[in-house]
Amino acid sequence: MGIKDLIITPIYLVLFTMIAYFVRPYVTNAATSKFFLPALWVRFIGAILLGVLYQFYYGGGDTFNYWQHGSRWIYLAFQDDPAIGLNLLLDNGGDRALDRSYEYSSKIWYYRDVHSYLIVRIAAIFDLLTFHTYSASALFFACFSFSGLWAMYSAIQEKYPSSTERLTLAILFVPSVIFWGSGILKDTITLGALGWATWALMRMICNRKRRLLEAVVLISALYIIYSIKLYILICYLPMVAIWLFFESAGRLRSWKLKILAMPFLLLVFGGVGFLALRVTSGESEKYALDNLAERARITAYDIRYGWGARLGGDGGYDIGIPDGSISGMFRLMPAAVNVSLFRPYLWEVKNPLMLLAALEGLIFLLLTVRFVFKKRVIKRVFSEPFLIFCLGFAVLFAFAIGVSTANFGTLIRYKIPMIPFIAILLLTRLSRPENR
After folding, report:
1. pLDDT tens by residue, 53-65
2. Of 433, 397, 418, whose CA–CA distance to 198 is shortest?
3. What is d(CA 276, CA 273) in angstroms, rounded to the nearest whole number?
4. I need a surface site. Which of 9, 90, 417, 429 has the fewest CB within 10 A?
5. Strand partners, 316
6. 316 burial type by CB count under 10 A (0-12 exposed, 13-18 middle, 19+ buried)
7. pTM, to two decimals
8. Alpha carbon of residue 274 to chain centroid
9. pLDDT tops 50 at residue 189
C-alpha cells in the first residue's frame, strides 16, 4: 500500500457511504436501520486492517498474492492492450494459456489454480475502477461480503424479530468474521455468497416467495461458492435438504398424516440431499465422496507439517492425523468439532491473532454451556427447521475443517463461514413464540 491508497481510498469510502445512506431505507426496517452503516463501516476497517497486517506483519501472503502477483498483471495488460486484458479477464486459468496473453499470465502466481484465479479476476475488475489501489479494491470485496450478510440478517430478523440485537451481534459484528471476511481473499467472496444463498432459501422456504429473483440469486450464489470453495457446498447442501425435510413435516397438522408422510419425505429429501452431495463432489476428483477421507489426511498432514507449518509458524495443533479411512476420520469428530468451535484455548495463544480467536472461542464455549443446560431452549431448537439447519451446518463444517486443517492460523480463517450459523443458534431468543 502506498500514496494512492491515501488518495483514492477515502474517495471510495465517501462514495460507498453515500450510496449506503441512499439504499438504507429500502433494505432496513425500524429495528435494523441503525445497524446498517456501522456494520458496513466495520467491514471497511477490517478490509484495510487486513492489508496492513499482511504487509507489515506477515510481509506478504494470500491477499497480496491475489493483488500484487495477480490482478496487477491483468491491469497492466489492459493498459498495454485492452484486448489482451479482456482475454485474461475472461480466461478461466488452468494449464492452458493463450499465446497473446502468456507474457502476463506466466507472471500470475495463481493462474494455474482456477479457484484462486477467479479471485484474481474479480480483483482485476475492481482494479480497473481504483487504478490498481489495494485498499480501495479491498473495499469492493468488503461491500460484497456485507451485502450477503446483511441480506441474510434481514431475512432471519424478519423471522425472529424479538432477537434483533442478538442476531445483529451473531451475523454482523463477530470480530473474526469482520477481519477475515472483508479483504481480498476467497473467504470474503464465499462468505458473501453464502449469505445471499441463505437469504434466497429463507425467502423461498420460510416466506414461500418463490419468484425468479430468489431463484437467480440462489443459483448465482451457489455457483460462486462452487467455483471457489467446493467443500462449503458439500457441507451446506445436505443440511438444506434436512431443513426442507423438517419444514415440510412441520406443516402437516395431523400426527397420523405426519407418521404416514415421514418415510416419503425422508426418502425424497434424503435422496435430494445425497444426490446434490454426489453431483457436487463428483465434479472434482479432489472432493469426490470416495476420496474425502484420504483428502482430509493429505490436507491435515500438509498444513501441520508441510507448507502450513512454514507459513503458520508455531500455530499447529494435533488432534491426530486422519488415517485415510472414513471410520478413522469420524473417530476424530468430537476433537475436530471442539477445536473448530472453542480452540485455541487461552493457554495455547502464541500471537495477537490467536488471542482474538481464543477469546471468541471462550465466549462460544460459555454460550454453548448455557445453551446445553436450558432444556426448554433445546426443545424449541429442534422444533425450528431453520435452527436445525444452522446446527447441522455448523457442526458438519466444524468437523470438516477441524479434521483437515491442523494449524490454528489457517483454521481461524477457514472457519468463518460457520460462525454466523452457530452464533445464530446460540443467541436467538427462543423463550417464547416468535411473531410470524
Report:
1. 888 777 777 888 8
2. 418
3. 5
4. 90
5. 407
6. middle
7. 0.86
8. 22
9. yes
